[in-house]
Amino acid sequence: MAFVSVSGVTKRFGTHVGVDDVSFDLEAGETAVLFGANGAGKTTLIRMLASLSRPTEGDIEIGSEPLGSGNAAVRSRLGVVAHETMLYEELTARENLRLHARLHGVDAAVCDELLETVGLASRGGERVAGFSHGMSKRVSLARALVHDPDLLLFDEPYTGLDQTSLKRVAAVLEDLEDRTVLAATHDLERGYRLADRVLFVNDGRLVGDLETTAFDDAAEVLEEYERRCTGGEPRAVTSGRAVPTRSTVAGTGTERASGTNTDDPGGSNDG
Ligand SMILES: Nc1ncnc2c1ncn2[C@@H]1O[C@H](COP(=O)(O)OP(=O)(O)OP(=O)(O)O)[C@@H](O)[C@H]1O
Questions:
Q1: pLDDT of 177
Q2: Do 30 and 197 form a contact (C-beta atoms < 8 A)?
Q3: What digits encode the pLDDT tens for the residues 49-84?
Q4: Does domain 1-77+176-271 have CATH number 3.40.50.720?
Q5: Mutual orientation of helices 93-103 and 109-117 as an angle, nearest 10°?
Q6: pLDDT at 165
Q7: Cα–Cα distance between 121 and 206 in angstroms, integer?
Q8: Atom of ligand 1 nearest to the CA of 83
Q9: Protein residue with its CA nearest to atom 19 in ligand 1
Q10: 41 CB under 6 A from ligand 1?
Q11: What are the boundaries of the region Disordered (predicted)?
Q12: Can you tell me the ipTM of this complex?
């Protein structure tokens, strides 16, 4: 059974459709990357999964539980690194982590371990307000892991990081073997190495959902992405899977339809 189920999810901003009838599942322990151009809808999807925004239509389930605003138990299974770091600027890095640990009933000792993991052990006593964007992002990642979440949602894990931090964050993500991870990225090279699956997003729609083992390298993934975005015939995929929704990718014989769609969309529009 899928651990994450996204079913017929649409997000409208007024008349503009940011995410358009997207459906996909993630198995527990799977790592997937969302790949797509600027404005494709990646952040909007991550934000809805992170409970930072509500779908206009459609359903999201985590561990078979609906992700509603009142469902704190489900939300406590999520670790989120969003565009905005959502840290308390006036608190130190360590205090930010400890506050989060207290909220989740976690031993504070884990905070120092995680600061070490993200390479900020020596800066833990400094206020976040004085941190660079990359440093804040690393604190945000550490905080997202404090309560040992089942699902890590990460918007742009690699953007704005120096080379050492990049290596460090990549290593942290690669070590999350038993967790489910969904990351939105433009860094296809790293995303390809990290992920079991790559989800192509174009103009708010899911235009491909493929196992990375279907490709020899990231360049091939990019080729396939471009082919799908320009309306080209998807290539035959033998070991990959493509899970088009009823409204996204035309079936080609090598793709199978997702069984998770619903014709009974829920959710509400928060604009
Ligand atoms: N709060 C908002 N109000 C209005 N439109 C929005 C809002 N958030 C996103 N959008 C629109 O929804 C679409 C998807 O945006 P989103 O930020 O999800 O794209 P993205 O794939 O994450 O892009 P990028 O790679 O540039 O971060 C875009 O057309 C964007 O303008």
A1: 78
A2: yes
A3: 999 999 999 999 999 899 876 678 888 899 999 988
A4: no
A5: 130
A6: 87
A7: 40
A8: 27
A9: 39
A10: yes
A11: 230-271
A12: 0.98
Rounded CA-CA distance 16/139 in Å is 34
Q: Ligand 1: does its nearest atom lie under 6 Å from the Cβ of 205? A: no
**Ligand 1 contact via 44 beta carbon (within 6 Å):** yes
CB of 185 closer than 6 angstroms to any ligand 1 atom: no
Of ligand 1's atoms, which has the minimum distance to the CA of residue 186?
Answer: 25
- Contact between residue 183 and residue 207 where contact means Cβ atoms under 8 Å apart: no
pLDDT at 257 over 50: no
Q: How many residues are recorded in the chain? A: 271
Distance CA 26, CA 98 (A): 30
Q: Where are the domains of the chain?
A: 1-77+176-271
> Do 216 and 58 contact (CB within 8 A), yes or no?
no
Average pLDDT score over residue span 158-181:
89
Residue 46 burial by Cβ neighbours in a 10 Å radius (0-12, 13-18, 19+): buried
Is 50 exceeded by the pLDDT of residue 143? yes
Confidence (pLDDT) at 266: 34
Residue nearest to atom 30 of ligand 1 (CA): 39
Name the band, by pLDDT with cuts 50, 70 and 90, for residue 185: very high
Give the Å distance between the CA of 83 and the centre of ligand 1.
Answer: 12
Q: What pLDDT, on a 0 to 100 scale, did the predictor assign at position 247?
A: 35
What is the CA(56)–ligand 1 centre distance, in A? 15
Query: What is this structure's pTM?
Result: 0.86
